[in-house]
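User: What would this chain look like folded?
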Amino acid sequence: MTTAIKGAITGIGELKPVRYSEGKTTLSLIAESVRLAVQDAGLSKDDIDGLLVGPQVGETPQHVPATVSEYLGIDPTMSNTVDLGGATGPGMIWRAAAAIQAGMCETVVCVLANKNEKGETLRSPNRNPIREFDVPFGASGANTSYALLKRQHMEEYGSTQEDFARIAWWHRKNAQLNPDAIFYNKPLDLEDISASPMISDPLHMLEIVMPVAGGAAVVVTSPEKAVNGKHKPVYLKGAGEKITHRAVSQAPSLDALPFNASIPRALEQAGTNVEEIDLFSLYDCYTSVVAITLESAGLCKPGEFGELVKNHSFGHDGDYPLNTHGGQLGFGQADLAGGMSHVVEAVHQLRGEAGNRQIPDAAQALVTGNGATLSETTALVLGGEQ
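Assistant: Here's the prediction, encoded as structure tokens.
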């Protein structure tokens, strides 16, 4: 039995086809199409809180929703890339309706566009903010971009190298209880982290994930079918998403980064609050990400994560259990599967099968995911009960 997905189309916009799109970019064609559709619906861009876009945007090879959102000047609470070939357009419509029905957003724009320049090569033109304002000045990779965020935090709030190092230390400490972690049986002293090589000032090597090979998969079914499964079900209780930018040069202030919206939304949907969370399974590609996420979650005020990590325990038996499997800093980052490892650990804990790192009576977990440079964020609340 299937449940009908209900939705309504209120605006359309279409460009007149031309043989060649001289001087145009895919982003500019997307923007013009969206402008027409939003105008036809009698809305403004501020009314758009959902975005579905195709995968072929020549100005960026990845982070497509974030790049398009930034170009359009919107901050969606739901976004995705749909890649179904000729079925992409219709496929977007029901996905948009499903997202609205799920309470993730209220108004979604679905857009596809393509440029066709005479004699064009496959090389993408430098016509998006990250290529114009970041890359030419050296901010061409994750290390540099996340270093800028860390430096900003240190300058604005006075946080110290030791504050950030303590985050990495907790992750490595937790990894010692996980035989599957890449750094199992490889503990660190706090001083080792700050003494490790400077990769991109002020980021040290041991504050940065080490890429590894690996994989992770999760099976999702209906609550009704789940009760007949092999294991105790773990339920999705709340979800939140937010995109605010793509290029770090376009990032908002530290207290307005996207986790400040996605985490509260997930908690609200779940009908819970941060003090009722038993596991914080937080995306941790860099110590600066964890620091800002702790503040965004409301565990401390902006700028005060240093005192939090200094005065509390983040082990499985501590005040705020954090990435009990070691996180990506201790477990390893198998590319995008690194983010899925946070979901897998939450399931282990909520099933009560985490062994010697088991959190007593774990009932709720906050799981986060992060893309680009603290640009694309997702937050989930998972629970052992519906």
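DSSP finds 13 helices and nine strands in the chain. If you want, I can go into more detail on any region.
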